[in-house]
Amino acid sequence: MKIKVEIDCTPGAARSFLGLPDVAPMQEAVLLDMQSRMKEAMAGADIESLFKTWMPSGMQGFDTMQKAFWDKATGKSDD
Fold first, then answer.
1. Can you spell out the DSSP letters for 31-73?
2. For labelling, which of 4, 28, 42, 53 has a CA lying 20 to 30 Å from the CA of 61?
3. Which domain holds residue 52?
4. The pTM is what?
């Protein structure tokens, strides 16, 4: 015996029917807070200093890393 029940309602109506709280206002507040924090962090970020931190010797470091990846991919080694 199979019983199939199909309910056509919105998520908000289902939450209300099941007695669950409406979390949309809380989600909106959290998202706005996260957005403002990310904007503040990006405004204070100095991209040039980040790049220097990640690549201390500038493009030379990038070239060295690229050569190492290429050598590994082609099977070459410094041995």
1. HHHHHHHHHHHHHT--HHHHHHHHSTTTHHHHHHHHHHHHHHH
2. 42
3. 11-73
4. 0.44
